[in-house]
Structure formats: C-alpha cells, structure tokens
Design goal:
The chain contains two helices and eight strands, in the order αβββββββαβ. The protein has 101 residues and is α+β, with helices and mostly antiparallel strands. The longest helix has 13 residues.
C-alpha cells in the first residue's frame, strides 16, 4: 500500500505518469559529489529528448521513463535517475538529486 502511494505521488508530480518530463531540473543544494559542478541542469525539451549541461558543456540525449526511473543515454552509456517521492531525479552520489526549477 505504501509503495502504491509513493508511485501515485511520483505520477502526480510527473503529470503524464510514465510518458514524459518537461521543464528544467537543477541540483538540489548539497546533493551529489560537488553538486552543481558535474550536472548543472537538465532541460527536458520534449517527450523523448533532454539537454544536459555538465561542466559548461551541453549535450542532447534521448531519455525514457521506465517505472520509477528515468534512463538517459549518452554515447551508448545509460545513466539511471530514480524518481523520488517529490518528483526529483536522484542520480546517485556523482550526479546528486535534481529538482524542477
């Protein structure tokens, strides 16, 4: 039951539940290894592409939502960001947590 509530909250935060993200996500203060230095922002530009700004470089990459995860693939490598209960994206110790601006 608790897991169902968490999923419902994540879906509400994403509006389109499992389909796409929109807007700009920025590092949550104090998260990640040098938060804001590795991943400066993510800008979801449509239902399948995101612009990632990292270390003063911007790249466009495809993404998809798989359950409670966002999978972003850059140069054949896939990074998994977990969608937390607040709708923020948790990229682990290196990328930290990014929340909608």
């Amino acid at each position: 039951m608790k897991r169902l509530i968490v999923v419902a909250l994540a879906c509400a935060a994403l509006v389109a539940c499992g389909k796409s993200l929109s807007g700009t996500y920025v590092p949550k203060q104090g998260s990640g290894l040098g938060a804001g230095l590795v991943m400066e922002k993510m800008n979801f530009i449509d239902g399948s592409n995101v612009e990632l700004t990292m270390m003063a470089q911007t790249v466009r990459a495809p993404y998809k939502i798989d359950g409670e995860s966002v999978l972003i693939t850059v140069q054949g490598q896939t990074q998994v960001f977990k969608i937390d209960k607040d709708g923020c994206l948790d990229g682990g110790a290196v990328f930290g947590t990014l929340c909608k601006a």
